[in-house]
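Intended use. Records like the one below are meant for learning the mapping from a protein sequence to its folded structure. Do not use them to infer anything beyond what is encoded.
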Amino acid sequence: MMFALRIDIDSLKGLREGVPRLLDTLSKYDMKASFFSVMGWEGDFLSTVKYRVIRAKAPMPSTTVVKGLGSKDKHSFLNTTRLVSGYSELLRCLFFPVKFSHEKDILYRIKEEGHELGVHGYVHVKWHNLKKNETEKEFQQMTSSYEKLFGERPKGFASPRFISNNTVRELTEKHGFKYSSLTYGEKPFFPVLNGQLCSHVEIPVTIDMIDDKGLIVPILYYFSRTGLSDSKIVEEATKRIDEKLRANKLASMYIHPKDEGRYLQPLFEKVIKHVHDCGCEVKTFEEIAVEYTKQAKGEEIGNHS
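Structure written out for the chain above:
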């Protein structure tokens, strides 16, 4: 039975406000997680205008307009709050962008407390529709920025919006990542590229939901938008975790600090407490990749002996 937590840092508000709360919660239950941070911005001016304002196909973090606005129930109040917060964040991204890599104290704290920190792109919004040369530039910028900050290259890469194609796979391999998390599925595997096995391990998210736009979204975030009570939301999440654990499968879920580290933090803590109390093994994505690689090499040696 194994549980793993992927935390995608894709908004400045999430980095500044959500990450410290998540770290406090994880410390309380002596649990390690795998963080993946944007190293540049949510979006620079041109890309924000292009994809968030003109095309409006890929909402900025916390800017999604949801149904039920104007009603008096708790969830509509939260939705209204998210909307107002979202537009203020959009204006900040347009006119006062801040590089995530400049938030050194928070990023250092993640590693100092024993968590894993990988990369999640350079300009997050650009991943909506990247050309090959733009993807190469993203990889170069996010890896060099990470290396400049920490003096070492990142080992893990989690793609924004679960973008997975041959170009991304090629660049993940080219830049020497030990593992990636580009997909949702059931178990780790070595990706195949041009008929050859990659050297990096793919570790999918196994607990997620698909929203009405066909996007993969965190489970707590998904159910928080349905009108369910807090207890029911926690029940839905823990039920899916337990199903994986009982089947002796990897239970890997992902969250965003802007949501689960802020207004959904009380629900997140209840889920983490449940995982802690069930006594299952908790590992980082890097630990899973190392173990899977050793296991695969052992099986290969056994087959040739």
